[in-house]
Amino acid sequence: MNGTILIVDDDDDTAVLLRDSLRKRGFDVDAVNSGQQALERLRTDPADVVVTDVQMAGMNGIELCGELRSRHPDLLPIVLTGQGGLETAIGAIRAGAYDFITKPVKVDALAIAVGRALEHLSLKREVKRLRSAVDKEIPIDGIAGSSPAIRETVEMIRRVSDSDATVLVTGESGTGKELVARALHNLSPRRDQPFVAVNCAAMPAPLLESELFGHVRGAFTDAKRSRAGLFVQAGAGTIFLDEIGEMPIEMQVKLLRVLQERKVRPVGGDEEVPFEARVVTATNRDLETEVEEKRFREDLFYRINVVAIPVPPLRARAGDILQLAQFFLKRIAGRTNKPVQGISGPAARLLMDYDWPGNVRELENCMERAVALCRLDEVTVDDLPAKVQEHQSSKIVITTESPGELITLDEMERRYVRQVLAAVNGNKTHAARILGIDRRSLYRRLEEPRHDAQGNPIAKSPTPAGDTAVTPPPSTPGSGSGSGASSSFPNEAELP
User: Fold this and answer.
1) Contact indicator for 106, 493 with CB cutoff of 8 Å
2) How far apart are alpha carbons 470 and 492 in whole angstroms?
3) Cα–Cα distance between 393 and 354 in angstroms, integer?
4) What span, in angstroms and rounded, lies between the C-alpha atoms of 245 and 200?
5) For residues 137 and 360, what is the distance between their CA atoms, to the nearest angstrom?
6) Residue 250 CB neighbours (<10 A)
7) Cβ–Cβ contacts within 10 Å for residue 49, how many?
8) What is the pLDDT of residues 199-212, one digit of tens each?
9) How far apart are the C-alpha atoms of 467 and 99, rounded to whole Å?
10) Is the Cβ–Cβ distance between 35 and 58 less than 8 Å?
11) Are 450 and 444 in contact (CB under 8 A)?
12) What is the bridge-based pairing of β-strands 263-264 and 273-274?
């Protein structure tokens, strides 16, 4: 574990025993015998955590905590107190101690406290680094983040922005598909022309047709004058058709002809009108599945899917969560004139552990609420929504049906594929992309094994050349807290 620990105890035997015990657990530890020695050592050899006894000759542990808070504010002290020393422990916390351990000291408990302090310190430093990064970097059109998933999306935006090719932006609700469409427009030569967006799920087919293609005077009861549709209004700019997967099937036929001919026929009109706009579409549906189930026209799918830009869900870019949160915090605090500067360590941990089913939109909403409720200069746990505070983190882990159950590699692979599919809400296209295989291979890996008349398993067909097999990483025997791994130091050794 990264970080250095300094033990402070005027009993030399105890100091050495604590030092050696923590070293055996993998920590980088040194020891001194007084508070004054600790302060002198820290001038030249910085530490991350100081473990100090309270009762010491000369400078006691509480006085040392006060000195550390003023001289080394980023350092985290842990104090060792006698049994029943609750008032002493409270005094130490008030003096700046991060945690306290009661005597007799259980080394495992001390190791856990030290590990927790190092993790807290690491998270605090990361929040500080990201706060500085947000000050220096301006994300393109609000697309913040440095994870591989979002970098791939940004790279694709830059590569196709100068093109006139029709683009299909895919992703779950709240991932920022319209931001991608606007980035495509703003980075293109069309940036000075209109950007026109329409939600295809918000209107019935007749109204949507009139909105997109326009109408002539008298085409229907309220058509008192002719009106150009959005395709024509977009001029030489960009028209963005959001939620195209929700478009009624009768409109899909008409849109297909428009995209093929690059002309629109207004409702009630006899003449077709050419348009120049680039077409960008978006959907949160798996259009390949929609095509297979006859809810979306295959010919229209291939017409709009010239270039596909997937936008990853927030759970697939966990490294971006704090950077996005800091970005939103700074923007919202500036807009509302609130002196909120950052996010506390415990709040940051909750933000990182939450699954964010509403994606970036939900995170932005969360930060807006947090800034509104914040009474300090940083967002705390109490400022976050209850569902974020109470969330129990769940990770993808391949499990067996019962303890001790042994399964084949094929069955392990099949369970892993199912769990990835569940993590992306059943979207087979996204699951296949994460697994690095095509959809046909995905279906094959989900098949239950077949058996012959004698009950023997029938071997699957070999994986075609070029298809990437998915093999989850094996777990390390004996790893984790319940591994039962032997140690040269007792698990529950107590020190005076």
Assistant:
1) yes
2) 41
3) 6
4) 8
5) 19
6) 10
7) 26
8) 998 788 888 988 89
9) 52
10) yes
11) no
12) antiparallel
How big is the chain, counted in residues?
496
Residue 460 confidence (pLDDT): 52
Tokens encoding 366? 């969360």
What is the predicted pLDDT for the residue at 314? 92
Buried b (16+ CB within 10 A) or exposed e, 208-234: bbbbbbbbbeebeeebeeebebbbbbb
| Mean pLDDT per 10-residue interval, the chain, length 496 residues | 84 89 90 92 90 88 88 89 72 84 86 90 79 53 81 90 93 93 93 94 86 81 80 95 93 94 88 93 94 94 95 88 91 92 89 92 95 92 92 55 62 79 74 77 76 58 43 41 38 45
C-alpha–C-alpha distance, residues 123 and 125, integer Å: 5
Distances (CA, A) of 205 to 239, 250, 282: 18, 7, 18
User: Residue 427 gets which letter from DSSP?
Assistant: -
Among 255, 240, 230, residue whose Cα is nearest residue 180 = 240
Concatenating the DSSP letter of every residue in 184-213 gives HHHTSTTTTS-EEEEETTSS-HHHHHHHHH
Is 445 in contact with 412 (CB distance < 8 Å)? no
Q: Which residue has the tokens 């941990």?
A: 349
Amino acid at 171: G
Q: Taking the alpha carbons of 155, 159, 161, 166 in that order, is the dihedral positive or negative?
A: negative
What is the value of pTM for the model shown? 0.58
**The pair of three-digit structure tokens given for residue 77, joined into one six-digit string:** 């002290």
Contact 16, 31 (CB under 8 A): yes
Beta strands 76-81 and 273-274 are: unpaired
The predicted structure's pLDDT at residue 450: 63
Which residue shows structure tokens 């070999």? 462
Domains of the chain, start order: 4-134 (3.40.50.2300), 148-310 (3.40.50.300), 316-389 (1.10.8.60), 395-474 (no CATH)
Identify the pLDDT of residue 213.
92
